[in-house]
Amino acid sequence: MKRRLQINISVILLVILIITETAFLTINHITTDYQMNKNVEAAVQKAVLKVEYDEDDHEVEFDDVNLYVDNVMITIYNEQGEVVLGSPIIGLKSTHDFKNHETYTLDIDNNHYHVYDLKLTFGSESYWFKGIYDDSHHGSSLQNAFRSFLILLPVTVVVALLISILLVNRAFKPVNQLVSSADDIAKSGAFDQRLPVDEKHHDEIYELSSSLNEMLDQLETSLEREREFTADVSHEIKTPLSAILLECDNALLEEENIDDYKESITNIKNRTRQLMGMIEQLLQMSRSLSRQDVMNIDEFDLSLICEETIEQYRELYPDIIFDGDIEKDIQFGGDETLIMRMLINLLNNSVRYRRLDEPLKVNLSLKRKNGLELAISDNGMGIKKEDLSKIFLRFYQVDASHTASNSYGLGLSMVKWIVDAHDGQIEVESDYGQGTTFTIQLPIN
Asked: What does the pLDDT read at residue 320?
């Protein structure tokens, strides 16, 4: 691309130079011709002023006429075309060769002349005054100038090429720096580095660098999230696997009866189911997280989704009271599947952490307030104050003695991500032993 640009600039500079030189020569030639014509006319007028006419004797005297004025040769003819004074011009033998009060050019024997004719009448006789200027010297100057231009043309081409190389290299310097920095980042894998941005010049290179840096920000965030996710998964899976291996080792090392072996196998089975449940939730969360850049945004009836979800939970848990305070016909633009997953996770959380000494009541409300406000409250166990700031962390679980066996600390983490993906906010209020309320603010658009 650089080479093509250099060639294009060189050609453009060369064309501009040729056009400029041609225009200069043409204008110079036209201007000079005009000035020569004026000089010839002025010289003839000066010669005419020196003519004396005696009205008494009817005689014309040319004694004081200067036949060479300002490089213009003056020749005087009578009406018969005979030379009265001056040097005769070959090819001018009759009055038909004269043009009164007119400037014109003649080419005689490869010589170019500027000519001006003026006819004057003295008494009964008429005379032609012809001024002639030989512009062969001027023509030679133009030819020499054109010849010099042709000689200098190769030098001009080289200069134009050097200028184009200089301009292109200067223009591509920030691009080269950008490419070099991008290569360094790609080779080193240091995605925490950023491309240089020239804050002084908000041009196309600035916009490109800023866009690439935004892409690197997203890439770094994605990689960091993936590393954290992988580390968390590795840590959480390691625990049940270690328990399974320990149970196997105990069963193999000790001589036990059939009941002990059955107990060991049952423990292994339970641990395996727990591990499978965790893997299933991890896969579900991974599929949800992978939708971050490909969310299926569409407008849907959020009120209807909330009502249908509440009705499903009433059928699944007839012993739990599910109330709905849902404003009708609220349209929302978002990913319907993710919003349903958010509602299910929050309702599951209420069901999972119920109190055994009192029937569980769950209320889901939806209304227009500062955008949209969706709240799910219950009278369950509640959350301790020291745990409130951590419940949205992946794999975080509260006191194990109050944690359901099928809970892996992923549900609320997914809820937080879904809310953030829809540019919303989530808050939690809880009174330990009395219940919890999750409040979600979503933008209308």
From this structure: 92
CA quadruple 171, 173, 178, 179: dihedral sign: positive
Which residue type sits at 147? R
**What pLDDT is recorded for position 373?**
94
pLDDT at 400: 46
Residue 227's pLDDT is 73
Tell me how far apart the alpha carbons of residues 156 and 143 are, in angstroms, rounded to a whole number.
Answer: 19
Q: Does residue 383 sit in helix, strand or coil?
A: coil
> Is-contact 22 16, C-beta < 8 A?
no
pTM here is 0.45
Residue 170 Cα distances to 167, 195, 271, 312, angstroms: 5, 19, 67, 68
Give the residue from 331, 283, 279 showing the smallest Cα distance to 305.
331
Stated as kind and residue range, the H or E segment containing 230 is: helix 204-253
Q: Quick check: helix, strand or coil at residue 301?
A: strand
Return the number of other C-beta atoms located less than 10 Å from residue 411's C-beta.
Answer: 21
Ramachandran category for residue 132: left, alpha or beta (phi over 0 → left; psi -120 to 50 → alpha): beta
Share of the chain above pLDDT 70, in %: 77
Which residue's structure tokens are 């449940």?
A: 277
Domain boundaries 191-290, corresponding CATH code: 1.10.287.130
CA distance 445 to 288: 22
User: What CA–CA distance (Å, rounded) separates 106 from 30?
Assistant: 16
CATH architecture of the domain covering 2-142: 2-Layer Sandwich (3.30)
Tell me the DSSP string of 281-297.
Answer: HHHHHHHHHTTTTS--E
- Domain 297-442 belongs in CATH node 3.90.650.10: no
Mark the ranges of the chain whose per-residue pLDDT is less than 70.
1-10, 25, 88-97, 136-150, 152-153, 171-172, 191, 201-202, 225, 228-229, 231-233, 235-236, 239, 254-256, 274, 277-278, 280-282, 284-294, 395-409, 445
Own/partner long-range contacts of 190-199 (Cβ < 8 Å, ≥24 apart): 191/216, 191/219, 191/220, 191/223, 192/220, 198/174
- Integer CA distances (angstroms), 231 to 227, 236, 364, in order: 6, 9, 35
Beta strands in 184-227 (DSSP E): none
Specify the 3-state DSSP secondary structure of 123: coil
In angstroms, the CA 239 to CA 237 distance is 5
What local confidence, expressed as pLDDT, does residue 177 receive? 73
Q: Are 331 and 444 in contact (CB under 8 A)?
A: no
Residue spans of the domains in the chain: they are 2-142, 191-290, 297-442
| Per-residue confidence (pLDDT) for residue 401, from 0 to 100 | 43
